[in-house]
Amino acid sequence: MITPPVPGRGTKSQPSLWSAPLFFALAAIGLLAFRTFIGNAGQVSADITKRGEFLFSFPGESVDASVYLRKPTALSIDPQGAINVADSGQNKILVFSNRGEFLQNIGRSGQGPGELLAPEKICFDNANTLYVYESANGRIQLFNGKREYIKGFKVYKYIHALKVWGNKVYCACMQQVPDRPLIEILDLDGKKTGEIGTDSRIEKIEPYRRKSLDFKRFDISGSGKIWFAWEYFSWIKGFSLEGTELGVIDLATQRQAEWSRQNVKTFLKAPSAEARYRSVIFAIRAKGEFLYLLSSSGEGAEIIICSPSGGNNIICKLNSIPKEEFHYYKDFDLIIDHDVLTLFLLQAYPESRVDVFRVSEPWKGLH
Predict the structure, then answer these.
(1) Residue 25 DSSP label
(2) Which fold has domain 43-360?
(3) For 156-187, what is each residue's pLDDT tens digit?
(4) Cα-atom radius of gyration of the chain, to the nearest Å?
(5) Does the global pTM surpass 0.70?
(6) Domain-by-domain residue ranges, the chain?
(7) Cis peptide before 271 (omega within 30 of 0)
């Protein structure tokens, strides 16, 4: 990088290049150019970085003392709008209203039908059927809209993410070998009927780092597109339900390019290490035309809104979670009501609770 000369007074034989009139003129032009540059340098800029409004947390002290979270592992909003939290420490699912009011418990500790041991993942189909994966029992159980037990079936791999589309169950399982699929498809009896994707990049990754590829997240949009992410890598892959690859989103490259365009390294003293551009993706939600990522990077924890189409996929960052608070959020879900986005974030540390944030018009000016 070429640095400008230090302003000087010059000499009689060599006038200074930084004489007062010229200096102020150049400074004015430079400031105008810099502001224009920052305002137009891609979509991820200070102009579209928004901060959410904290509303409340639950369960709180006003709730019955028997209602609490011990080791929450997953959060999902059912089709009726209730907030469901899987708690592997209590071996049950706790259900709350979207105002944080406790509604009911699902399951109890045990190995029988309808009983739970270490519920890790939960999801719902369009008929409001609840699917629960238990790591200790090694099975998936189904509960109807009244949360009555329907059936269950065994699974023989650890599941990192669970979704349902139609009468098919999509599971992201452990993967440390090149030929293992990213997603396995099961019928409602637990029989494997198909698979989606492989990751050829695993061969290029050092063996001691391959375990990090096990931590996977994905969601299925309303249009039937699968969006798949690795927790410790800033890659997102899109697939059709038939397994056709739709494209790749590289968040790290886009962050680095964005900071470079804005020249943040010079003007805002940003960290230079490439690792600081990477995003740890804890959860992903596909709602409407956007992807929502619960992420952590060198800038702190945040919700990133992505558009799967276009060259620059990151269109908005919601800095609802300041880095200084050191909160560890494990999962999240969201409700969109007209121009208001309400976020329900499952905090696992330092407290076990659900934090609720609201962001008005997060998409304003993005279209």
Answers:
(1) H
(2) Neuraminidase (2.120.10)
(3) 889 999 999 999 999 998 765 656 788 999 99
(4) 24
(5) yes
(6) 43-360
(7) no
